[in-house]
């Protein structure tokens, strides 16, 4: 890229751009705005705030592209990538709709009531920024840093928060409908009264996050949460509590299927917590493992139905081989009676077959009782 005149900014984003390696849809851009001064060497948007006497909203507005040339910035209205707006007060006074603010420095910036709808804030740093009541509809926060940011009562519908860092962010009463939180780090984030209808929370880190009076619906997606890398018991404890919070939210909205899924994942996390703390031979761990493979932690019928089918078919096959009845169909009827009631009357002399009948009757009765337990327990959510 050619060197700009001395009175022009010349800030390029991204640095080290290689046209041969980058996607055709991605281009480097160069700022051609007028410099604050020749000593500073950069425009009001990109200059170091410590080197600028004043960074007022009016000065920022004067250095935006004229409306007649904005089409050249398509699909954005303004290219402000890499802007330095540390501590700048942009509260409700500057329209930044559809702007490109990738890799921008907005630490401690005041964006209260700001209109950033459709803006691209990929990899931007908004640590401690105030975004209270801001319009952040469809904003792309991919890989952005929002640690300790205030995002109260803001509109983040359809926002992309993929891989975003929201540690200790305050997001009370925020509208996250249709937002994508995949792999977002929301540890210790305050999400009280936030609206998660239609949102995607799969693989998000929600350890120690605060949930109270939240909204969710049938299209709120949580296949699983981020469950840590080192498998320590403390991490599994935090993960289990996060699943418990989500279970409560779904149960409060009558989403029993989703509540059951969160219950299963909560119990799994508790089982792995016991394993990490006391090893595989821990009684609690083994009991939880048995519960998983027999009753699906008390809410899933498929494991138990699988065992019931296996025992029934196994016993039927044995009766057929032993010749208890003349035909396979009659042996199947015999197995049904043995499985669901007391051992059927017979003149069996084969001790092995008698033992099989007693085992089938005992296990059949036990499993029918367990099936009733599961059916009743499923209605608790």
Automatic annotation (TrEMBL):
Lineage: superkingdom: Archaea
Pfam families: Pentapeptide, Pentapeptide_4
InterPro entries attached to this UniProt entry: 5peptide_repeat, Pentapeptide-BTB/POZ_domain
Annotated transmembrane regions: 304-321, 351-375
UniProt keyword terms in alphabetical order: Membrane, Transmembrane, Transmembrane helix
Protein name per Swiss-Prot or TrEMBL: Uncharacterized protein YjbI, contains pentapeptide repeats
